[in-house]
Amino acid sequence: MKKNDEIKQNLERLFIENYKHVRDESLENIIKDYIIETDLYYKSMGITNYLQDEEVLLLNKVSKNKRLQKAFDEVIKIDFNEAIIKDDLISGIKNAIIDLKQNAQSQQDKFNIQLIFIIHDQLLSAGLYCYGEGSFPILKEPSGFSFDYKKSIYNHIDLINYSTISSKLFSFDLLLEEMEIDNFIMETAFYEHLTECYKYKTYQLLNKAFESINIQEFEKLSIKFPLHIYANEHDCPPINIYLYE
After folding, report:
1. Partner of 114 for a Cys bridge, out of 79, 147, 224, 229, CB 3.0 to 4.6 A?
2. Side-chain half-sphere exposure of 201, counting CA atoms within 13 A
3. Strand pairing category for 113-121 and 223-233
4. CA angle 27, 30, 35 (to 5 degrees)
5. What's the pTM value of the predicted model, to 2 decimals?
6. Nearest to residue 198, comparing CAs of 86, 85, 75, 93?
7. pLDDT in tens, 93-137
8. How many Å separate Cα 96 from the centre of its chain?
9. What angle do CA 16, 34, 236 make, to 5 degrees?
10. Is residue 75 within 8 Å of 123, Cβ to Cβ?
11. 38 vs 13, 14, 64, 130, CA distance in Å?
12. CA–CA separation, 210 vs 164, rounded Å?
């Protein structure tokens, strides 16, 4: 199997593994399960009146809120105009590469780039961080690995926009905060899987974007092949996105 086919399959699998915990969920069941689990927890400590707590009354009320239900139905679709988003990602990546070339011109200590991380914060935007030569893995799951971090060039400003992908998720988050239930919902396994779905969908679209970006875009940068592209959130383990062989 070609390495880029393996990378694509890994990203698809990681998305599906998380989406199967999201697609058939309902807001009412998530809140119901949270109440049951919390009640059992309090009972284990000898507290038996949790079901009469104001928190439970609030959660039962919002579980039937039509506005919240509509936002929930939208956020779990994870459905986008992928062609438009792909073009937006391609534009952002190309601008980030141009910025790298400008930064490289002022770099005194030249080196061959063989490793690039696309690093983001909260799925809003991302930048490119480039490092030197080494032997780098094709990962089945996000995982850390050793590399020489002493020589690097990177974007000082994030130029790759993720917000067109994550906007529904952030709108849902804001509504949870407005209704004062964000602390409850965001602690659930459902919400963890939901955010992972948006992350891996973003990575899948990055993969498609790099398929359309010719290696000639990196011209004037000193590249060592194979050139490995990974993605991750700051201080989190990376996963492969693409490989220029």
Report:
1. 224
2. 24
3. parallel
4. 125
5. 0.95
6. 75
7. 999 999 999 998 887 678 999 999 999 998 999 999 999 999 999
8. 19
9. 45
10. no
11. 32, 29, 20, 46
12. 18
Residue 51: which H helix or E strand, with range?
A: none
Distance in Å from the first CA to the final CA of the chain: 14
Amino acid, res. 110 = K
Q: Which of 163, 131, 161, 87 is nearest to 229 (CA)?
A: 131
Q: Which residue has the tokens 């698809």?
A: 12
pLDDT in tens, 15-40: 999 999 999 999 999 999 999 999 99
**Cα–chain center distance at 75:** 15
Mean pLDDT of the chain: 96
Please check whether residue 228 is in contact with residue 240, taking contact to mean a CB–CB distance below 8 angstroms.
yes
